[in-house]
Amino acid sequence: MKNKLLLLSLMLMILSCNKKKDENIPTYHKGNLTILTDESFKSITEALTEGYMISYPETHFKVETKKEDLGFLDLLNNKAKLIVMSRTLSPQEIKAYEEKVDLKYLPARFAADAVVFVVPKNSPKTKITMQDIKNGLNSEEKNFIFDGTNSSNLNFVAEKLKKQPRDLKFSIISGNQNIIEQLDKYPEKIGVIGLNTFSRPYDKTSEKLREMVKILPVENEGKEYYPDSQGLRGMKYPFTRVLYFLTSEGNFSIANGFIRYSCTQLGQMIVQKEGLQPYNLYKREVQMR
What start-end ranges are recorded for coiled-coil regions in this protein (predicted)? Predict the structure, then answer.
């Protein structure tokens, strides 16, 4: 009898240890994760995390806003497991990523966003040319307003113009939403913001912000391009940018689970509901009976 009790006790101890061991194994459907994103893509990032938490209720995300370049440095220094990026990394940055994170550089692209140029509703401006943008960013008048240095919007525009951000001349109002709300005070200036700031079609805050400004189409080589679905899908709008995830997670845990979710059909439907262009296009099949 004593031997049976001893054997039973040992089995229970083994099962208990295995259970505790299993609980400590990283998993995609349970745990906490902080995602670093530039303020320009906060809306789409939050929407995707909300969808993931509905699918996996034991996960919890914190979306923290941080300038794009600073977020990348945190990833390299093991202070972050997942970041959202838009600009193209330099060969030196890719090398640093692969050496410090010890992973192959594989950006997980999930949406097409855009940098847009806005003016107050009553502005006489109806378009802006590529030459206007180049000239304006070299002018001491500093008529273009960005949301800060090291911001994704500034980095991306500089990249498109093949310039360094420090070589451009511009004004600053902190925050994309603040630029829209304060633009009336500076009727001669042009706000430069991320489309995702107010791209949600039926969101009340987005609707209010859209009513305050108008988006200028960009003229390039005699043709005007708009940051709408057609302009983004074919990347014809000159300042279309692709958002992607970078992670330092080497196993299939919550970060990689979230990346996979965001790139599947369900995640891409959320991207579309945000008013952005899904990067991965899925055919819609309708069966007729």
Answer: none
Cβ–Cβ < 8 Å for 139, 165: no
Structure tokens at 215: 């988006």
Cα–Cα distance, 261 to 257 (Å, whole number): 6
Please state, in angstroms and rounded to a whole number, the distance separating the CA atoms of residues 72 and 66.
10
Q: What is the pTM of this model?
A: 0.87
Q: What are the average pLDDT values for consecutive 10-residue runs of the chain, which has 289 residues? A: 53 50 68 96 97 97 96 96 96 97 96 98 96 97 95 96 96 97 96 97 95 97 95 95 97 96 96 95 49
Please, are residues 274 and 200 in contact by the beta-carbon 8 Å criterion? yes
CB distance 288 to 135 below 8 Å: no
pLDDT digits (tens, 9 = 90+) for 44-100: 999 999 999 999 999 999 999 999 999 999 999 999 999 999 999 999 999 999 999
Q: How many helices (H) and strands (E) does the chain have?
A: 11, 13
Encoded tokens for 73: 């440095």
Strand partners, 214: 119
Q: Whole-angstrom Cα distance, residue 77 to residue 250?
A: 15
Q: Tally Cβ neighbours within 10 Å of residue 103.
A: 13
Quick one: tokens of 41? 């893509």
Locus of tokens 């709300």: 181
CA–CA gap between residue 12 and residue 205 (Å, rounded):
56
Strand residue runs (E) in the chain: 31-37, 59-65, 82-85, 108-120, 128-129, 144-146, 171-172, 190-194, 213-215, 218-220, 223-225, 240-247, 277-278
φ and ψ at 122, to 5 degrees?
-90, 10
User: How far is residue 237's CA from residue 159's CA, in Å, rounded to a whole number?
Assistant: 15
